[in-house]
Amino acid sequence: MSNPSWPSIDVIVPVYNEAATIRAKLSNLAELDYPRGCLRVIVVDGQSYDGTAELVERWNRPHEFRVEVLRSEAVGKPAQVTAGLGRTRTEWVLVTEADARLPDGVLKSMVELAQADERVGLVGTPIHPMGDDPFDRAHWTMANWLRRHERKWGTAGLVVGPCYLARRELLAVLGWGTVVDDVYVSCRALLGGYRIELTSLPVQELRVPVGGRELLRHKLRKAMGYLRETARALPHAEARNFATSIMVLWRAGLLVGLPLALWGGVAVAVARFGWSHAAVAALTVLVAVWGLAARGGRGRLTRAAAIIATPFLTAVILTAAALLLPFVPLSARYRKVSLPEAPLLDTDPL
């Protein structure tokens, strides 16, 4: 499909201590297959102390593709997006993170989906993690699969943070107290009667958890944020559109249903076989599947084991998140996960 009149798009890149990724990110945006005169990039620096903003300014000097730097007092991605929104002028705004690598044609694909239906409020992308952790890869495989199938029902249930295109008015709902922008803006869009579209072009995610401890810490924090933002959005339900409102309830139901299914299965096993036999059987299966999946290979058996184990791991993490959420304060700025080694990063001096 071709579009002779591509609309202007403002791009917001919120950054905090991204010296290792920012130049490669700007080069990636400059290489997008989109008319240069219709694209403006705003890097919102949230008090970085590693020279990120200075690197953006130095990157500007030899390049025709200009980037605006906004040094903000805002802390955390949602607040930085809000700060950047004050500099935007376009109806549609692309929000993307410094560690996300976009394929050349993704923006055109997203814009075409946005223009095809006036009811579309957000357009997301599949995510392809660059790491080898089988559980993280299985998580994104299942998350991408779920959103593709939700779209067949009329709307996807979520956009994800590394890259999404949003109506400017929807980003305006981000404000004080938001800690996970993608979940909150998705819920508010659906509750406002907007559809969420999904392009088929995947975005590469450079930051990936390395090791079991980092994986669990990262997924637990994400789960707590997901629960919190869904709960914050639900009171704003206005029943503007039945189908999109149902999608929010479906997503909320998954958050509750997975743990209930897990612990319900445990209760049935205990009632049927007794505590000792059920515990031995569960432990045997857990050790076998975890050991196979955690070997880190890319064989079919390893991937299958990780995919089988991931729903159970997710249910455990959601349970822990629900128990901890009332007692653990969440911040929009949290510890980042690991970055891969070069050559994925642009570390050469300018």
Extended strand count: 10
SSE order, as H and E? Answer: EHEHEHEEHEEHEHHEEHHHH
Distance between the termini: 38 Å
Sheet with the most strands: spatial strand order: 3-2-1-4-8-6-9
Average pLDDT number: 87
Q: Give the overall shape, derived from the CA principal axes.
A: globular
Helix content: 40-55%
Radius of gyration: 21 Å
Contiguous uncertain segments of 5+ residues: none
Biggest sheet details: 7 strands, mixed
> SS-based structural class?
alpha/beta
How large is the share of residues in beta strands? 5-15%
Total helical segments? 11
Describe the structure.
- There is one protein chain.
- The protein has 350 residues and is of the alpha/beta class.
- The protein has eleven helices and ten strands.
- It has a seven-stranded mixed beta sheet, with helices on both faces. A three-stranded mixed beta sheet has the order 5-10-7.
- Helix 1 links the parallel strand 1 (9-15) and strand 2 (39-45).
- Helix 5 (134-152) packs across helix 11 (300-324) and helix 9 crosses helix 11.
- The longest helix has 32 residues, at 242-273.
- The chain starts with 8 loop residues before the first strand and ends in a 26-residue tail after the last helix.
Question: Which features characterize this protein?
Answer:
350 residues; alpha/beta; seven-stranded mixed sheet; three-stranded mixed sheet; 11 helices; 49% helix
Short description:
With 350 residues, the chain is α/β, with parallel strands linked by helices. It has helices at residues 22-30, 52-60, 77-85, 106-116, 134-152, 168-171, 181-191, 212-233, 242-273, 275-293, 300-324, and strands at 9-15, 39-45, 67-71, 92-96, 100-101, 120-124, 127-129, 163-167, 195-198, 203-205. It has a 7-stranded mixed sheet with strand order 3-2-1-4-8-6-9, sandwiched between helices. A 3-stranded mixed sheet has the order 5-10-7.
